[in-house]
Amino acid sequence: MSRFRMYPTSEQAGIVLGHCAHARYVWNLAVEQHSHWRKDRKAAPGFAEQCRQLTEARRENEWLREGNADVMQQALKDFAQAKNARFTSAFGEPTWRKRFRHEGFRVIGTDRVPESELDDSPKLNAKTGNQVMGRSVVVQKLNRRWAQVKVPGCGWVRFRLTRTGLPEAKTYRVTFRNNQWHIAFAVIPEPVPAPGTGEAIGVDRGVAITAALSDGRRLNCPQLTVKERAQIRKHQRRAARAPKAVSGRPPSTRRPPGSRPEKPTGARTGARRPPPCSPGRTA
Questions:
Q1: Is this model's pTM higher than 0.90 or not?
Q2: Helices and strands, number each (H, E), in the chain
Q3: pLDDT tens digits, 110-134
Q4: Is 186 buried (19+), middle (13-18) or exposed (0-12) by CB count in 10 A?
């Protein structure tokens, strides 16, 4: 994921905020549909059915018709992916999105490029045998520090190029947080070859030296810094000066030696009351 700071104009920012509102509205509609599902009811609509319902809603609702259809369909696709990954991811069920907190949308590339296999051979369709064409984001480099990307309804929008080379991705996501616009391209990183030459090395674990290798190298675990060691000594001195507890009783509730608890107010004092006299006798 390559993330850059985006700088739309005031007019472009208003259009992009409209995309965020449409994507959030469609997402919340999908959440509402699935929240009504019960075991005794039929299954909630899937991605294809929701796209068909979205087309009908755009015909009847003027506000939805003004928005971009690709942005809304990508919001439904994001919801479908989140719904399918609710058991494998740490986020659980998709929840509601709020204004000023979940401002963003995803866009799929509009440029068509031929796809290839891992061995750089052309990727062909299994049924027709034709070349498979994939999507790609249209990005242009302006100079060493600036580039621009095509956003639906906005045209070219500039962003700060803080990495070498242009990002090559199929989709990108635009987000607005803390009065700042960002664009993140879904770039698949190149595989990193695993280190190693195939040789076998013996490892001897110890206390003074964490690991001693047969080729002469010695590896040690990271130790505490000077500041961390000073904090530990400070807490040790504080624990040594603290009063000790007696018989498991905390020091704050311990009575000093020789003291006795005071009698409560209104307690009986003096000798015990004599037993009552037997019948027929006087005191």
A1: no
A2: 5, 12
A3: 777 777 777 777 788 878 878 777 7
A4: middle
